[in-house]
Amino acid sequence: MMLTAPAAALAEALSLAATAVRGNINLAPVHLVADKGAVSFTCSGPGISIKITAIADIAEPGEVTVAANRLGGLITGFSSSSSITVNTTDNTTQISCGDSRFYLPVLPDVPAALKFDTESTGIEVAGNDLLALLEVVPAASTQTTRFFLTGLYMHSVGDELVAVATDGTRLLRAGIKADHLSTDRRFIVPSKAATALIRLVKQTKPDSVTLRRSYARFAVTGPGFEFVTALIDAKYPDYERLLPRASINVAQCKRSDLIGALARLGAVADGELPLLALSWIDGEPLRLFLPRQPGDAEDRVPAETRGSARLAMSLPQLTAMVSNFPSDRLHLEVTDADGPLMLRGERSKLGILMSCRWTFAEGEKPETEKRPAFARSGAMPNVQ
């Protein structure tokens, strides 16, 4: 095999392929295939494979496997405008640029790339729409004991493709207009794979991508890349029955106003897990304060409000959830006296955050024994 290509193109392709083994690149091989005016880099980690293709001048087609970290170190050591030649023999790979020559051993065992196990027609969606679905992944659980929640669940609902993630305390749901892809409850994409795919799509910026799903695999292809991941072998819980009903206790405000208020309260809050109180009365602005630090901080957010609500929740969790919504305006709802809080944004975006138990001062809100919807179900316990 012999090829020549700009250092910048080779470095970017290798970097993106190595996303499959992020954190383990020192032990990872990369498989290069040169043919028909392009070179591909394929890296495979546990349950994930990424193939990236770059344009190159191919003097001799072929393939080779070398250490990803060593090849990457050599390529990034040259200026981005340099022209690099890769030439292989049976035992070595020569990397040359100008008068510089370096040699890497050929690894004897080609890593087994994850293959898509069933032919599927797939559906085409915009690259930005795929990112909108993947952005629910921060709500996924990190507890391996509930491995079926350690990813995002994708399913078709009418003319939408919907993605959901939850850890039992918070839930994020997003939908995009798309053709039918899947309706069973086993389409669960691991969080690590979703995170790698987010980086891949953000870096390549494709106008559109093709999604394919089989019983055990999920594949995404776009200009210059192929992504395949194993699905979590489990059935996703029936989250729909846990969604709170519509409420008359609603508030609408600018997202930027709410983020600013949360940041100011966070600057004053003590402790690693500060508690926030959120309340409103019909026709009045939102009131936010720190119930564990009475008198230290209070903020008002202009809002259109109906009904009334008052509940306590994690300040960091609410801040993170609000930041996940790209909408200019947010719609807040509280069905029960003690939560949960529902956030609605554009394009079917939904967020749910469990409340924390707190006995408010006299004249504010009495303590209640009623529990939030997720907690009452027994499937997703309330977290204090």
Automatic annotation (TrEMBL):
Subcellular location: Cytoplasm
Region (Disordered): 364-384
Coiled-coil segments on the chain, per record: none
Taxonomic superkingdom: Bacteria
Domain DNA polymerase III beta sliding clamp central positions: 136-238
Pfam family, one: DNA_pol3_beta_2
UniProt keyword annotations, A-Z: Cytoplasm, DNA replication, DNA-binding, DNA-directed DNA polymerase, Nucleotidyltransferase, Signal, Transferase
Main location: cytoplasm
Signal peptide: 1-20
InterPro entries xref list: DNA_clamp_sf, DNA_polIII_beta, DNA_polIII_beta_cen, DNA_polIII_beta_N
Family, similarity comment: Belongs to the beta sliding clamp family.
Protein name (record): Beta sliding clamp
Lineage: Bacteria, Pseudomonadati, Pseudomonadota, Alphaproteobacteria, Hyphomicrobiales
